[in-house]
Amino acid sequence: MRLLLVEDDVMVASGIKLGLSNAGYAVDWVGSGERAEEVLRTEVFDAAIIDIGLPNMDGLELTRRLRRPEMASHHLPVLILTARDALHDRVQGLDLGADDYMIKPFELPELLARLRALLRRSQAATSAVLSFGPIELDTANRRASAQRNGQSVPIELGPREWTVMEYLLINAPKPASKDKLLQALTGWDKEITPNAVEVYISRLRGKLEPYGVALRSIRGFGYRLELRPTEGE
């Protein structure tokens, strides 16, 4: 999942970005509302975390503007951060288009939990568990597993494997775009090449095939989860 963090305090932003990155998210950071507005006109994100107390254009005004139809991600979920504990500020933020808010200081586990909830709602998921055939991804507890002979078998996934698997399950049975997967893995950090996506796909194939789930390459587009016929079918 690709996130946009809008925070003018470098130390606060660094801490949040590190925590989110360690949880498997691709995080792009900007320090002003003006820069965020510019980016959101052309680039697609899965969610935005916006501090209210930005210089010049504050987070409330940015939230209002990003809901405009011309924005590339005008439907993305928005979590606002605020040091203001006034009811008026919280209500105004929600009325302007924010989906949730957190008051500073906060603990990272709560931020991650609220973010997961927003992402589930934005994907129209009614459960914290994504599934395809025997494969299950518990997004609340960060656990992957497969059903075999009536038992749940854990599947070990690294952070980037988790990101790829989550996108595949959200899109299933439709294919997931390779370009979208690359953006979710890297954001603006270009240390991962397009070929690296194939590496993670290959690793996932090895982990899914024992449970009868195949990862099919769709030429020129991306990848799709498919159930393999069992013997005798």
From TrEMBL:
Write down the Pfam families for this protein, in alphabetical order: Response_reg (PF00072), Trans_reg_C (PF00486)
Task: List, in alphabetical order, the Gene Ontology terms for molecular function in this entry.
Answer: phosphorelay response regulator activity; transcription cis-regulatory region binding
Q: Which UniProt keywords apply?
A: DNA-binding, Phosphoprotein, Transcription, Transcription regulation, Two-component regulatory system
Q: Which CDD domains match?
A: REC_OmpR_PmrA-like, trans_reg_C
SMART domains attached to this UniProt entry:
REC, Trans_reg_C
**Origin: domain of life:** Bacteria
Q: Which residues bind DNA?
A: 127-227
Question: Can you say what this protein is called?
Answer: Response regulator transcription factor
Which organism was this protein described from? Ramlibacter cellulosilyticus
